[in-house]
Amino acid sequence: MKLLLDINVIVDVLARRKPWVDDAAAVLSLLDDARAEGFVAVHTITTIEYLLTKDLNRKRAAAALVDLLRLVRVVPVDHDMILKALSLGWKDFEDAVQAVCALEIGADYVVSRDPEDFSSFSIPVVTPSELLTLVARDQDDRP
User: Fold this and answer.
1) How many domains, the chain?
2) DSSP 3-state assignment of 41?
3) Mean pLDDT lowest for which of 12-21, 94-103, 124-133?
4) What is the pLDDT of residues 60-110, one digit of tens each?
5) Which of 98, 101, 126, 131 is deepest in the core (most CB within 10 A)?
6) How far is CA 87 from CA 83, 94, 116, 133, in A?
7) pTM for the whole structure
């Protein structure tokens, strides 16, 4: 199962934001256990580095990113992808870029705490909690 993780899921874990941290961390555990493949858009990494460096320091921010990059692959964004995101006409351009990245990798799900931001998107968008329910249901259905 391929998952494109929205930045809010990653930041929930790194910043230990309540009440979302537990579900978001459980999603990252799925990646760590190789039960899913995780992907993030390239701008997710640069934004997280900026936020972490402000709150921590550059060395600790870099260490956190190295840990994250052990779990996820980075989806590069090119000229054509930006044009495609612009053509979607979404109110939030960053979400449109996330959507194009999900299409690029053939994601099964986009995992976001704000699924309503992707309401017109063709790939299912689920919250971390919803994803965990789907995974548990899938395991229960196995013989």
Assistant:
1) 1
2) strand
3) 12-21
4) 889 999 999 999 999 999 999 999 999 999 999 999 999 999 999 999 999
5) 98
6) 6, 13, 19, 33
7) 0.92
Q: What is the pLDDT of residues 27-69, one digit of tens each?
A: 999 999 999 999 999 999 999 999 988 888 889 889 999 999 9
Collect all residues with Cβ–Cβ distance below 8 Å to 93 and sequence separation of at least 6.
85, 86
Asked, for residue 31, whether it belongs to a domain, the answer is yes
Q: Give the pLDDT band of residue 143 (cuts 50, 70, 90).
A: low
**Phi/psi of residue 96, each to 5°?**
-65, -40
Domain of residue 67 covers 2-131
Q: Which segments of 1-143 does DSSP mark as H helices, in order?
A: 7-14, 21-32, 42-55, 58-69, 79-88, 93-105, 128-141
Answer yes or no: are the C-beta atoms of 101 and 75 closer than 8 Å.
yes
Encoding tokens for residue 101? 């990245």
| Beta carbons of 37 and 2 less than 8 angstroms apart | yes
